[in-house]
Amino acid sequence: MSTPIKLALRGITKSFGDTAVLRGIDLEVATGEVITLIGASGSGKSTLLRCSNLLEPIDDGEILLDGFDIAEPGLDPDPLRRRIGMIFQSFNLFPHMSVVDNVAIGPRKVLGVSKDQARESARELLVRLGLESRIDAYPDQMSGGQQQRVAIARSLAMKPEVMLLDEITSALDPELVGEVLDVVRDLKADGMTMLFATHEMNFAREISDRVCFLHQGQILEQGPPEALFSQPSEARTQEFLQRVTDAGRI
Amino acid sequence: MAGPEPSLTRREVYERERRRRGAFIGATSTIAAITAVVVLVPRAPRWEQVKQSFFDVDLLRESFPDLLRAFWLDVQIFAWSLPLIFVLSLLVAIARNSRSPALFPLRALAVVFTDVFRGVPVILTIYLIGFGIPGLIPSRAWSNPLIWGTVALVLSYSAYTSEVFRAGIESVHESQRAAARSLGMSSRQTMRSVVLPQAIRRVIPPLMNSLVSLQKDVALVSLIGPVEVLRRAQNQTSLAANFTPYVGAAIIFLGLTIPCTRIADHLLTRERRRTGATAIS
Known about the structure:
- The complex is a heterodimer of chains A (250) and B (281).
- Chain A has 250 residues and is an alpha/beta fold.
- Helices cover 37% and strands 25% of the residues of chain A.
- In chain A, the strands form 2 sheets. In chain A, strands 6-7-8-3-9-10 form a 6-stranded mixed beta sheet, sandwiched between helices.
- In chain A, helix 5 runs parallel beside helix 6 (174-189).
- Chain A is globular and about 55 Å long.
- The radius of gyration of chain B is 26 Å and the shape is flat.
- Chain B starts with 9 loop residues before the first helix and ends in a 6-residue tail after the last helix.
- The model of chain B has no long low-confidence stretch (mean pLDDT 88).
- The interface between A and B is medium-sized, with 26 and 17 residues.
């Protein structure tokens, strides 16, 4: 028996003005699968993630969550969006709230959990992510790596079924990348379904079940990481990987 | 041996010397300015007459308690207007920032409101509303100029303050909304819990500024009747044929506005320090 499909994208198109950013994306993510999206800047990785949880409305296509089209026009996106977690490149923590409140705000406002209970769960989550000493700190007082881990905790507090990770280590100093990637490893070990846009090729190779190479708004090539990284079949993919290798990023 | 202590670096010695010279120049120029005023003003040809009619100490002492009592009305108008302005301007700012097409009429109304009340001088608004509305409503209970003067003040100030709030709301980066929405929060929850708390914090210094000018502009309500401190001073001035009560009223206003201005400045510097910008001398 094959694992059920958690998230399916069918024929997604999206333009900003005259610029077509996504030109017919088809992608199926099985439950517990980790898929990384690689590709040059502007290839549509971020837009694809933002469309997947309806932060950007799509022009055409279907986004099926457990087989149910959440992009159906006229549907209220809020109750659907909470089932999909998102982590951003620039963390986007709420600067006016302490760490524990950042994590507790989602369950409090969206799920109606009481303040004390939400904080208690938030505390447990932060301890699990090794942030117990920063529970009462404010985002601006922390390192980028810590902030990003808080952002992950904030998203996990909503118990998402899928997580979208948008270049979550790109804004970090090199020595802080590791602590964030460790969290992603743990998430995979827990069986989290993830769609992960990244420039960390080594990590993509290590963690992905499947790698997709995006080029000009289309998935040009996809496959298991070993195959795609060592023997890319498309010339564009080879070219991209060569450039990344030359830049010393592999 | 005299001279710089050995623990000081060359830079520290230089900085100390520079500070000393700065303090000296500051002190000298202050003394020179004060001397100039004290020596030159009394030499003005009509100083004696001016002193008589503006700075009559006995009259000041005599009229001051009365002025202070009248000032209580200013304080009351101020205390009423302040929360009303806060709420109204925040609502207008939120309406202008709304994106739902269903709220178009509200958005349009908010634009017209700010355009009209920012475009008309406060005094004119007070005259028009203070005399116009009681004319519309025959009931005597609602013809109190105090009420309509306050309403006019609230409308005028809300138009200005709503723009301050709007700027604050727009200064909160779009990514904050994205983060809140991705947690499943509705646009209303996002506005309340994420955008507004940050926006209001950022606009506190400019809000303090409007607060200071509101304290003074309360006196404009006197133009349509209520006897507050400016009106009282006017009466006393005509009775005594002497302008000293005006000076008394000015002193009372300064007693309130100067501390407020200092607090506003303090908040501004603190905000600047917090955001990390250093002042360049």
